[in-house]
Each structure stands twice: as C-alpha cells, then as structure tokens.
Design brief:
With about 240 residues, the chain is an alpha+beta fold. It has five helices and eight strands. Strands 1-2-3-4 form a four-stranded antiparallel beta sheet. The radius of gyration is 37 Å and the shape is elongated.
Length: about 240
C-alpha cells in the first residue's frame, strides 16, 4: 500500500531541456563543419578524426549532413555528442563540451594545413594527340572484314537454305565463329564466349585487337574456302 507515502520526486525536465538545447546547437555548428569537410574531401560520404589534448573527436557525414560527432576522452569512455540514436548523458555531454573549442581549433588547423597545397601545381598540360587517324584505319579494316563476312554469310545462306546459321573454324589455336541472319553477318567472334567481336551490331573492336587478329582473318577465310571445296567435292560424287 502506498497510501500516506509522500516522497518528493525530482523532475528532470529542465536538465533534459538544457541538454537538448546544447545538442541542437552543436548539431547545427558541427553540421557546418561536416559540409565543409565534404567539400574539402570531394565526396558526400566520409569521416575525419581530430586529436586534442583531452582526447579524440570523430565526425562522420553522409550526403554532406552530419551523422554523428563522437568524443573519446583519454581517460576512457566515449560520448556521442551528436547521434541519430539517443541523446547523450548530461554529465558526459558536459565533459565533452569542455573540449569542444579544442575540437573546432583542430578542425581549423586541418583546413589551414591544406591551404596553398595546390599553388605549385601546373595546369599547363601537354597537347592531347588525336585518335582520328587510328580510328579511321580501324574502321577501314573492320569495314572490309564485315564486307567479306557478309559475302561468306550470303554463300552459306544460299547453300543451307535456312535463315540462321553459323560457321566455325580454328585459326592459330583460336575459335572463330561467324553467325549469320539470312545473307548478312550478325557477328564474327574470336575466342568463344567473352571473346573479341570483330564484327557486331554494337561497338567496334579496339584498334589493338584489330591489329592482332586481322592477319588471322585471312586464315579464317581460307578455312571457309576449304569448307566450300569439300562441299563441292562431296556433291561431285553424287550420281543420279
């Protein structure tokens, strides 16, 4: 039974209110530091740690906004002065805030240490060579390979009588595959899945790939011609 018991319960509303006011002020002030750090570091996400005589402050930000400000004293323990979770204990907050000015001074010193670091960096860069000649030669060679591949596709279409098909051969140990749709080459691929597409409906091959494989294309055409010769030989043996 509690009837007749008259205990006075201390109210914490004023203390909590003062704590919240301090946290709100720090969030606003340290939020400015977070935005400046994001600009300095060139990214929306990151964190930076600053050392003072009393301990270590870590400020983390995301999308340029402060996520937390943590103080770790040299005597031990840590206090999240600013946090997305619960507010700090008033005593811990008071202890951390006694070192807040030192934290700001450490941040300012960090920024000042970056001033002038790019003064001697020259922006007088060498001229950039054009790739027009290389690209033009690449396109010329690839265009000729496509023309020959289309001719081969047309001959296969005439022989097979179906709309889709492939022709494969090995040249210098690599698998070459010509895929056609009716009498037009869909692609010419060297090296199987994940290989190099000399002919495709997408982007052209690189100039080094063309240089490496152009001579072997002759071997692929020769293999195709041998295939046709064998077909002619087989048909010559048919008697009616």
């Amino acid at each position: 039974m509690t009837e007749g018991i008259d205990f006075e319960v201390a109210e914490t509303e004023d203390i909590a209110g003062q704590r919240d006011e301090v946290v709100a002020a720090v969030t606003d002030h340290a939020g400015t530091i977070a935005r400046e750090l994001a600009l300095l570091q060139g990214g929306d996400y990151g964190q930076e740690t600053f050392n003072t005589n009393a301990g270590e402050w870590t400020l983390k930000y995301e999308a340029g906004n402060i996520q937390y400000l943590r103080f770790e004293g040299k005597a031990g323990g840590e206090t999240y002065v600013v946090s997305a979770k619960q507010p700090p204990d008033p005593d811990d907050l008071a202890a951390a805030m006694r070192d807040y000015d030192a934290f700001v001074a450490a941040y300012n010193a960090h920024v000042e240490s970056k001033e002038g670091v790019l003064d001697d960096v020259s922006t007088d860069f060498p001229a950039v060579e054009s790739t027009d000649t290389v690209v033009s030669e690449r396109n010329r060679v690839v265009g000729r390979i496509r023309e020959v591949s289309d001719v081969m596709a047309g001959e296969l279409h005439r022989y097979d009588g179906v709309d889709y098909g492939t022709f494969t051969a090995r040249v210098n140990g690599k698998r070459w595959e010509l895929k056609r749709e009716e009498s037009r080459a869909s692609y010419l691929r060297v090296g199987g899945q994940g290989g190099t597409y000399l002919v495709s409906q997408y982007e052209p091959p690189s100039a080094p790939d063309v240089r490496e494989l152009a001579d072997d294309f002759r071997g692929f055409v020769e293999a195709f011609n041998d295939y046709v010769d064998e077909l002619e030989a087989d048909l010559s043996n048919v008697s009616l």
